[in-house]
Structure formats: C-alpha cells, structure tokens
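This entry is retained here.
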Amino acid sequence: MLRVVQKSKLQMMLQSAGMPALAIIFMGFFGYYAVLGPNGVVAYREYTRQIERKEVEFAALEKRRAELRNEVRLLDPQRGANPDMVDELVRKELNVAHPDEIIVPLN
C-alpha cells in the first residue's frame, strides 16, 4: 500500500519562502557590514581623518628633517664646517657657555 503524505499549509509556505528569506538575510548581513563594518562607509570617514592628521604630522617631520639636513651640511668637515655653528654646538654640548651669555642661532 502506498501511503500519501500531505504537507500542511505551513510546511508548504516555509518550503516556498525559505530561499528568498535566506537570500534577504544574506544581503542584509553584507549590507550591514558595507555600512557599519570595520571597512564600511562609517569607518572610511575615520580613515580619512587619520590620513589628514598623519599628513600634517608628516609635513612637520619633513620640515624638521630639512632643518637637520641643513645643520649636517653646515657641520660637514669636508666642505669646511661653519665656525659659528661649530662653536655654538660645542658650547651647548659641553656646557661651557657662561650664564649671562646668549647663544643666537643663525637660522
């Protein structure tokens, strides 16, 4: 004997709506991460702000690097070191400047 099993209306509805519901959940998951995830639109704004801050910091470091490069150039013994620069550096490093003496940088 063959037995016929009838599906209830609820089972038929779940079977027909299962795949679309799964697809909607799947798209919602990726949509959420596209907007609020660690690499989403909201995080992109913070990355942009961080880049701007780092660019300002980089410009300050480049300026300091140029100043140091100039000091090295002035102290280069092969080019003939700048006597004023050498005197200033020696007095400052060896602490031989008098208390009432004022060292005026040439830069």
Remarks:
- The mean pLDDT is 84.
- The helical segments are 9-36, 41-75, 83-94.
- The chain has one domain: 16-94.
- The CA atoms of residues 72 and 78 lie 11 Å apart.
